[in-house]
Amino acid sequence: MNIFKKLRQKRINKVINDIDKKDLLKRYMYLALGCFIVAFSFNVFFDRYGIVCFGVSGLSIVINKKFGIDNSLFILVMNIILLIVSYFALGKNKTKHAIVGSIMFPIFVWLTGFIASYIQFENVETLIIAIFGGVLSGIGYGFIFKTNFNTGGTDIITEIVSKYTKVSIGKATLVSDGLVVLSSLLVSSWETVLYGFLVLYIISFMTDKVVLGISQSKAFYIITDKEKIVKEFLLSVSDCGVTLINAKGGYSNEKSTLLLGVVPTRQYFIVKEGLLEIDENIFFLVCDAYEVSNNAKRK
Predict the structure, then answer these.
(1) Which helix (H) or strand (E) is 263 found in, with range?
(2) Residue 75, CA distances (Å) to 58, 111, 134, 154, 203 in order
(3) Sequence ranges of the domains in the chain
(4) What CATH number is given for 217-296 in this structure?
């Protein structure tokens, strides 16, 4: 049994290694672009206005205002320390994805620092500054995460916390980022803290949009007694595909057919209303479909 388990793990490791080697040049270019965008928005929007959003970069704003330590130097030193911790706590494979980004990001923070002095936002509300900074940073982080790399920092801390406390990554991230934002109370007011949480949300939202894209399709999971007419209806809708899946009720144990329909977002309304017209007792679940391969299209 252990032999089969080892062979399976070896095959999985090979797949992961093949992914890591795929399109390296293109991925490093996206990583550099993402780091530049995030560093630019950090200097122009966040550091100047004292908005602490999250991560080591956010913490660097507090340290800079409290002790006068240069932002890029603090980020670099902290990232190197966390990389060493990550190597022993998370292992080589987890750490290698953070090495380049951990070094590249503080370098871009240093290089783009002078740009902030040439860009002035006179009589602009801090709310607008926070929104624009959050959107731009979210786009930058989206480019970074699309490469399967990261910039280290508190990402390493959250993974360590998640691994050893069995807390989900999401909860660990929420706690670590929340504490970083709250740390801005040491140098600023509650108003700035609220701006920090707003930026945190915007960055998270925009990152997802860049990584996943804007949903162009909807996936309908449908269970009905009128599967034949539902199937014909879905196939009659322009650019809509449908697949029939054998299913079994979890409570009733009765066999049924699950229809999976992939519907263009522009056709969502007509499909939803059409299904309800065909069967008023129909059950369906709708999800965003961010990417649909050619094999899923109707032939």
Answers:
(1) strand 255-264
(2) 9, 14, 19, 11, 19
(3) 10-212, 217-296
(4) 3.30.70.120
Walk along the chain (299 residues) and give the pLDDT tens digit of each residue.
Answer: 577 677 766 766 676 677 777 788 888 999 999 999 999 999 999 998 899 987 899 999 999 998 999 999 999 999 999 999 999 988 887 888 899 999 999 999 999 988 887 888 878 888 999 999 999 999 998 898 888 888 888 888 888 887 788 777 667 777 888 899 999 888 888 888 999 999 988 988 888 778 777 677 889 999 998 888 999 888 888 778 899 998 888 778 888 889 999 988 878 878 888 898 898 889 999 988 877 775 544 44
The DSSP line for 217-232 is EEEEEEE-S-HHHHHH
Residues 6+ apart with CB under 8 A from 33: 140, 143
